[in-house]
What we know:
The chain is mainly beta. It is built from 2 helices and 8 strands, in the order αβββββαβββ. Strands 1, 2, 3, 4, 5, 6, 7 and 8 form an 8-stranded antiparallel β-sheet that branches.
Amino acid sequence: MxxxxxxxxxxxxxxxxxxxxxxxxxxxxPPQTSAAVLPQVQSARHSLGPLALGLTESEVLQVLGxxxxxxxxxxxxxxxxxxxxxxxxKLGLTLTMARVAxxxxxxxxxxxxxxxxxxxxxxxxxxxxxxxxxxxxYAADYARDAAANDSAGGTDQxxxxxxxxxxxxxxxxxxxxxxxxxxxxxxx
Length: 188
């Protein structure tokens, strides 16, 4: 639906506590195993419930358990990373895990949330939040770059880009309500 990347959603009725040291702290760099896997992007300051970019495989498993479905590991042409999808249909989640080489650990590269997700961003926005609530929480951070440029500066009737499509959050709307939340680099 958003930009041809894997979609994620969560069906938890209450947020799960963030995973200890893996959750980025304001002003700190995101946890990384390789710069090629997780480029320095502004999305390190964003999270959705317990999920944040750069979480390790074991941290994701600790929070969500084993994925119900896996996509095959393939080399992503844009980055050269080895990527695979972890799908949690009952939770409504699909994550993209990545590594530079098959001998390295997997880290959370990008993910998207859709209904019935109950996780909220660190600013309180979740699936079903109104456009007005999103604007109140994020308007100062809407993208102003050429890649997300339109007359509203990174927003339109169907999408709002926070920070940048190269690393940030993209919200998609249906009937003026948040229907999808994507975290990560939506463009390379």
